[in-house]
Amino acid sequence: MTLDQRQRDLLAEWLPRAEVVKDLSWGLVGTTVLELLQDGDRYIAKAGDAADGNIATEIEAHQTWLKPWTAHNRAPELVHSDEQAKLLVTGYLPGHLVEGTDHEHNPETYRQAGELLAQLHAQSAVTDDFEAGENEKALAWLTRPHRIAPDVVDRLRTLITSWPTPTTELVPAHGDWQPRNWLIHNGTVSVIDFGRAALRPAYTDFGRLAAQQFRTNPSLEQAFLSGYGPDPRDPDSWHRQRVREAIGTTAWAHQVGAAPYEQQGLRMLTEVLDS
User: Fold this and answer.
1) Where is the Protein kinase domain positioned along the sequence (predicted)?
2) 5-93, superfamily in CATH?
3) Quick check: 28 pLDDT over 70?
4) Cα–Cα dist 129/206, whole Å
């Protein structure tokens, strides 16, 4: 595990008798995730490195948006946090990740995930100039290291700079809504990982699923919408979002050395530009 001295000191203060049960860190980014045990109770500690920008976001999400889930044990409760130290501790949710199991292909999983996402999105809404900022981010990705073909880069720049930038309704969004961040326990789905939570259009939380599970199994999308409600994706804004997400996925994955995600991003680009 990789914790700095301040983080170690805080964990010793908050959970003085805790033992590390398992290191759950993903490894692609500088976030350490530990399962801890103290006096028979389990906890999850998340710590960011010097470059981390997600722990503060996750703390804010716990403090602001997770009540509809934590009230029913569908998300972990925040126990301790220190934004400056980039450290938080939550209670432990029983279960295992949906990704890579039979539950990833079960429509009931997606119906529950749709219901949970609707609860998050329904909490508040504001109108803001979202798309202009997202277009700038997409163009910025194209200036960084990636393996998108030069002619495709030129086409993307021309496309993005031609887009309108309408104001958009923003809701509390998870930011990485997919089976990798869902737990299943006794048939019940719950949610983890809020490091990308922010106010965004509701349709942005459909992006990961549309590029992965919905793409190969339409019944999962139908089940998801049966839990979520009316589909928030309109053709024009959804197309623009798909382009931006494909760019971000491809460039980010290349920079962190995640070859499978880079290939997924390149496929996403091909598919959206051909649509």
Assistant:
1) 18-275
2) Phosphorylase Kinase; domain 1 (3.30.200.20)
3) no
4) 20
